[in-house]
Amino acid sequence: MDQLQLVSTVKEALAKTRITDIHTHIYPGSFGDFFLWGIDELLTYHYLIAETMRWIDLPYEQFWALEKSAQADLVWQTLFVENTPYSEACRGVLTVLKALGLDTTKRDLKEYREYFNAQDPAAYIDRVFELSGVDTVVMTNDPFSEQEYWQEKGIHDERFKAVLRIDTLLVDWPGAVPKLKGLGYEVSQTIDSKTCEQVRRFLTDWIGRMSPLYIAASLPYDFTLPNDNPGAVMLDQCVLPVCREYGLPFAAMIGVVRRINQALGDAGDAVGKVDIGTVGYLCAHYPENKFLVTLLSRENQHELAVFARKFRNLQVFGCWWFLNNPSLIEEITRMRMELLGTSFIPQHSDARVLDQLIYKWTHSKEVIGKVLIDKYSDLMDTGWIVTPDEIQRDVDKLFSENFWDFLS
């Protein structure tokens, strides 16, 4: 296989593989208002709002008071008309429009709106899945939250899988108590044996309702173990025992600094460096548990990959949030391959708008494909023969099979 054949074979494998997107915030049409799609949702994604507010002298509260279409107009005018849309979030919108067959040279927001308004939502979901190469997405379903939704009547679309999200249990126990009481669980602010029994019952009940693929929490950068704070006790006495009982991994997404700018809302979160010892403590002290881990800070990525070499109950996944930029995806993927081979999950979309599946996976596949080509070239330089079947095997592992194998 020469270099041209290698490039063609890798691209063909990437086009053929079906993706399992292991962490998203998107929902099927049966979830009503939580099913987000279309140009106005793309333009009012919090990445673009934060970027817009760097350019305009408008009080935050006045922006939030605008109708969504007016917010989208302002974002479009600011980022795509008055400025060149260099950023990954801006480029992503254009990638979606192009993939859908719309003419980006026109820069005509009215025409784009007319296109989306004419779409049948059910058929549009099918088209997005086809264009992105995704066949399964994992939602975010938080019983404590009105924003991360669970539809009691069922999903009605087998492509969407549930995850039980429990941030409140681990980072806001005082806030969790009244919510648990409201759901019928006899808990108290003092974490005693009865409270732990009730929390375990809560988790078990929701596992029965959702059939989640894993239990997850997004944790602040300063969440550390070992510790005697309520979150650590909940994890030790309730969450991890239930995970073991039901054979569910615990997914820890660590590194957020919440609302560093309160006025920006969801766009106001930032990033902090994690004490990697927390990950090591989890893996070493709970060897019968499985851990899916992604960290938000670039500075943590090498340490995390090294820890993954030491603990087979740790599966590293994705380039999360502020790391979802091509230059960082390439750097992190290259480093992980050099340390872990193909025994990791290179990406998840973290999409909040259905259409984002198109650009996030298009862009990520381009970058990951580039790294794969380089690595196969290195092998071929040694005289090693790489076959098309082996390349397809590797791509399938990275984009789907590694996740399902870890679950099992």
Number of helices: 17
H/E topology pattern: HEHHHHHHHEEEHHHEHEEHEHEHHH
Number of domains: 1
User: Rg to the nearest angstrom?
Assistant: 22 Å
Relevant CATH superfamily: Metal-dependent hydrolases
Question: Helix- and strand-based class?
Answer: alpha/beta
Main sheet attributes: strand count, strand direction, barrel closure? 6 strands, mixed
What does this structure look like?
The protein is an alpha/beta fold. It has one domain: TIM Barrel (Alpha-Beta Barrel), CATH 3.20.20.140. It has helices at residues 3-16, 39-43, 46-53, 60-65, 68-81, 88-99, 109-117, 121-132, 167-171, 173-182, 193-210, 230-246, 277-285, 301-310, 326-340, 356-381, 388-407, and strands at residues 19-21, 134-138, 160-161, 164-165, 215-220, 250-257, 270-271, 291-295, 314-316. Strands 4, 5, 6, 7, 8 and 9 form a six-stranded mixed sheet that branches. Helix 1 runs antiparallel to helix 16, helix 1 packs parallel to helix 17 and helix 8 (121-132) runs parallel beside helix 16. The longest helix has 26 residues, at 356-381. The protein is globular, with a radius of gyration of 22 Å. The mean pLDDT is 96.
